């Protein structure tokens, strides 16, 4: 069997690309290792840049998003129990949108399902070969049987652990990585959010974040060790620590039933190239950011905007100029997103082993931010996101 495009992975990157290409009549098959329920159930960040929202709307999968999302004008910065609101809308005219990533995935997979699109679940890809030949070859397992499919292009939207990036010879792949001595202990809570925007709190005991998923569900995080043992965190201990790190006089953190607890280690990773012959990488397959600033999904959608524009141009106009520039454009944008995620992580967290001078200077950076309008404009621009270099014609 041969198709123009094989997409490996049905996460937000792969599913959105499949849907956009379908809209323009470009045949593609999605191969996903896990079940649909598993893919939809993964809980991740929930903050979208305006460009990511616009891409969903333009692609025709933004209706529920527009109905159910929460618009945030800016963020609150907490510095040792003092709250300061930074109003992005007032500073630069745009804010951010809160809509859970699992909802994004559900909406796109539902659209693909309704259209009868070829998404093969529980079909783990085994190998990608012949990247530099006239057709790439992909093998996968379905119902215990190994199958093969060939394609003009393969898109590796298979996340950090997927086989696509690993199929690139080591001497053709340059990567950069940083592991932080930190994790985030996250809780999902049945309680109305205690603020109308996210609260990023720096405290001598560590970072804490108040976010939300809906008017009834709060999402809260505490800086912890990368290998923190959840058994040591009773609900009461979580609430006390959140109160200590983010509380301020005259403000109450609403409590409610904690229905999920998780620990995520913090990591930065990226590839210097996102193309190898007939294979393109997109999303987490090519880059991972620490969650401070919620750039994971947004970077993935920036990749998909350019890649879909390139593939559409290639197949409908016989012009490969965007496709040929995809890797350079995507890597360049991603490096700036890496820089923001790394610097935002460095701003708020307490790093083990830092001396009192470094700690005080770190706090001074935040004090400068909440006092200086020029610093706030720069922060607002980075939080709300860099432009997408190309948009698919839809
Ligand atoms: N064969 C087929 N599918 C695979 C394989 C394989 N061998 N290996 C992994 N996959 C699938 C995974 O099961 C997953 O559903 O690829 C998909 C990758 O999805 P994500 O990890 O969600 O990556 P991506 O779509 O790029 O989304 C980026 O995810 O981690 C967050 O913060 C990140 O929000 C960002 C988003
Ligand atoms: C979230 O809602 O999960 C979230 C919000 C903001 C971040 C990171 C995560 O910076």
Question: Helices and strands in order, then pairings?
Answer:
Layout: E1 2-8, H1 12-23, E2 28-31, H2 36-41, E3 47-48, H3 50-58, H4 63-68, E4 70-72, E5 75-79, E6 82-86, H5 88-92, E7 96-98, H6 101-114, E8 119-120, E9 125-129, E10 136-142, E11 145-156, H7 163-166, E12 175-190, E13 198-202, E14 208-214, E15 217-224, H8 235-246, E16 257-271, E17 275-276, E18 279-281, E19 287-288, H9 296-317, H10 321-348, H11 356-371, H12 373-384
The protein binds adenosine-5-diphosphoribose and P-hydroxybenzoic acid (PHB).
The site of adenosine-5-diphosphoribose has 26 residues, from helix 1 and helix 9.
Overview of the structural elements:
By secondary structure, the chain is an alpha+beta fold. The chain has one domain (2-178, 267-384): FAD/NAD(P)-binding domain (3-Layer(bba) Sandwich). It is 37% helix and 29% strand. The protein is built from 12 helices and 19 strands. It has helices at residues 12-23, 36-41, 50-58, 63-68, 88-92, 101-114, 163-166, 235-246, 296-317, 321-348, 356-371, 373-384; strands at residues 2-8, 28-31, 47-48, 70-72, 75-79, 82-86, 96-98, 119-120, 125-129, 136-142, 145-156, 175-190, 198-202, 208-214, 217-224, 257-271, 275-276, 279-281, 287-288. Strands 1, 2, 8, 9, 10, 11, 17 and 18 form an 8-stranded mixed β-sheet that branches. Strands 6-5-13-14-15-12-16-19 form an 8-stranded mixed β-sheet. A hairpin with a 2-residue loop joins strand 10 and strand 11 (145-156). Helix 9 (296-317) runs antiparallel to helix 10 (321-348). The radius of gyration is 21 Å and the shape is globular. It starts with a strand and ends in a 10-residue tail after the last helix. The model has no long low-confidence stretch (mean pLDDT 97). P-hydroxybenzoic acid is lined by residues 45-47, 198, 211, 219, 291-294.
């Amino acid at each position: 069997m041969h198709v123009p495009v094989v997409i490996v992975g049905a996460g937000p990157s792969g599913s959105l690309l499949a849907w956009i290409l379908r809209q323009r009549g470009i045949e593609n098959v999605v191969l996903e290792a896990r079940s649909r329920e598993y893919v939809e159930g993964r809980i991740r960040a929930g903050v979208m840049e305006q460009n990511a929202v616009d891409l969903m709307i333009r692609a025709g999968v933004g209706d529920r998003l527009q109905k159910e999302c929460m618009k945030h004008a800016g963020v609150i910065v907490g510095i040792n129990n003092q709250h300061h609101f930074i109003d992005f809308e007032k500073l630069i005219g745009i804010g951010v949108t809160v809509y859970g990533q699992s909802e994004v995935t559900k909406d796109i997979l539902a659209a693909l399902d309704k259209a009868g699109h070829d998404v093969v679940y529980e079909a783990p890809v085994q190998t990608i070969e012949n990247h530099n030949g006239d057709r790439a070859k992909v093998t996968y397992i379905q119902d215990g049987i190994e199958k093969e499919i060939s394609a003009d292009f393969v898109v590796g939207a298979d996340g950090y652990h997927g086989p696509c990036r690993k199929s690139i010879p080591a001497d053709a792949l340059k990567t950069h990585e940083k592991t932080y001595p930190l994790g985030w202990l996250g809780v999902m809570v049945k309680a109305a959010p205690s603020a109308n925007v996210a609260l990023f709190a720096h405290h001598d005991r560590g970072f804490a974040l108040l976010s939300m998923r809906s008017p009834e569900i709060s999402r809260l995080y505490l800086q912890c060790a990368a290998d923190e043992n959840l058994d040591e965190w009773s609900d009461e201990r979580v609430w006390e620590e959140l109160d200590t790190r983010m509380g301020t006089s005259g403000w109450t953190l609403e409590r409610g039933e904690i229905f999920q607890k998780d620990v995520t280690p913090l990591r930065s990773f990226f590839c210097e190239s996102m193309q190898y012959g007939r294979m393109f990488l997109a999303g987490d397959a090519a880059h991972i950011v620490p969650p401070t600033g919620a750039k994971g999904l947004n970077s993935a959608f920036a990749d998909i905007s350019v890649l879909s524009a390139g593939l559409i141009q290639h197949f409908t106009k016989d012009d490969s100029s965007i496709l040929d520039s995809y890797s350079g454009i995507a890597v360049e944008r991603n490096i700036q997103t890496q820089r923001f995620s790394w610097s935002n992580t460095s701003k708020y967290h307490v790093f083990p082993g830092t001396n009192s001078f470094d700690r005080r200077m770190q706090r001074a950076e935040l004090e400068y931010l909440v006092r200086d309008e020029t610093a706030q404009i720069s922060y607002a621009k980075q939080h709300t996101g860099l432009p997408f270099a190309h948009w698919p014609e839809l």
